[in-house]
Amino acid sequence: MPVFRVKGVGGRKRPLFKMQRGPAARAWPATLGLLALATAQVAVYESLARLHDLRNQVPEAVAPDSLGKSSYQRMKASIFGTEISLLCAKCGAEQGVSTVGDLPEEPKCIVCSSGLLVPCYWGTAKLSDLMKKREEKTQLTDEERAELSRARRSADLVLSYGKKAVVAQTVYGIGPQTASRILAELRDDEEAFYRDLLEAKIRFVTTRQFWGS
Question: What is the pTM of this model?
Fold first, then answer.
């Protein structure tokens, strides 16, 4: 069995490693093959998991063509059927609950007629309380100030773009920043608008797992 040596302390040679022969040597290719197979299997499982996640959270992107509707039509139908509450960022009045599809093209506050309306998808209670705290000049935490700032950006979009801003922010993973970028394109083609929303949703679902790394 060949032994490779290197000089050590005092000029003496010490073994670095030995070339294996016999059964041990023949086992190496098989071991490497198993490792490669295991790595490939892990990659396949991860891909399947991502596809499963995509199917669950972006069904309009993977639904079969036999359903007879395009992806953007499925997405539009889903958005328009979503229940939403609007809260006026100017006077604080709640606008009641309706579906996105039932909203007028230019929503206005039922009390003060302002277009500064915040879309609230989980009810208005929390945001309404924060607005009251701000009016009463109660000290707010950094998180509460950030939430109010986000709500104002959302309302600004509704003021500028009307119902389309509500539609954009209804999509999972799309907040005021992404919605602003998409709305700024000013697309007249409805299909192109919903395609942009769908692409943003897919990008969010497929990349969020890497945000913490």
Answer: 0.68
